[in-house]
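Need a sequence for this fold. Nothing fancy.
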């Protein structure tokens, strides 16, 4: 299945990405397409295309097309914010250690660094 999203950013975060992640987890996701600078949001997609320069008010083609309903159907949704949060923390930690090691090497191994 392919996800093609040129909708508002909030809709994409709330309705499209969790559905795309559900498809990915169930080996049903073939391709994702969205606006520029969204590759990190779709980190799980092996085939992501950043196609749209601007966002438009389009309803996404997912089970829940709008958040403006009394109840959303979450049968085909897997929240990935926890996974994204963990990934970002790992990247932050790695970046912190790499920065420390780089500064250590630049200072000739002197441990008296101001961080």
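Here you go.
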């Amino acid at each position: 299945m392919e996800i093609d999203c040129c909708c508002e950013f909030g809709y994409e975060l709330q309705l499209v990405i969790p559905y795309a992640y559900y498809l990915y987890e169930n080996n049903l996701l073939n391709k994702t397409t969205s606006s520029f600078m969204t590759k990190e949001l779709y980190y799980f997609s092996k085939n992501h295309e950043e196609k749209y320069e601007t966002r438009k008010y389009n309803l996404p083609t997912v089970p829940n097309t709008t958040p403006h309903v009394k109840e959303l159907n979450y049968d085909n949704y897997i929240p990935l914010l926890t996974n994204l949060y963990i990934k970002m923390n790992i990247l932050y930690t790695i970046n912190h250690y790499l920065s420390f090691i780089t500064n250590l090497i630049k200072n000739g191994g002197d441990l008296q660094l101001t961080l």
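For context: The mean pLDDT is 83.
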